[in-house]
Fold this sequence. Notes:
The protein is an all-alpha fold. It has one domain (6-76). 75% of the residues lie in helices and 0% in strands. It is flat and about 60 Å long.
Amino acid sequence: xxxxxxxxxxxxxxxxxxxxxxxxxxxxxxxxxxxxxxxxxxxxxxxxxxxxxxxxxxxxxxxxxxxxxxxxxxxxxxx
Length: 79
């Protein structure tokens, strides 16, 4: 059981309620009128595709040694 003083219990409830209220207030703003990605679709598409580039560029570097190590472990491990 976690024993907290009363002010810390109420602090967690306070932060939870303030976060909910703040999220509700922010959700009311109109943010979708002038989106950067709509005006510069090609540039945003290129930069968005570059986000996943490290996965593709390191796939062979990390996957092949892991497979080789797994197979070597199966062959040479006699424990």
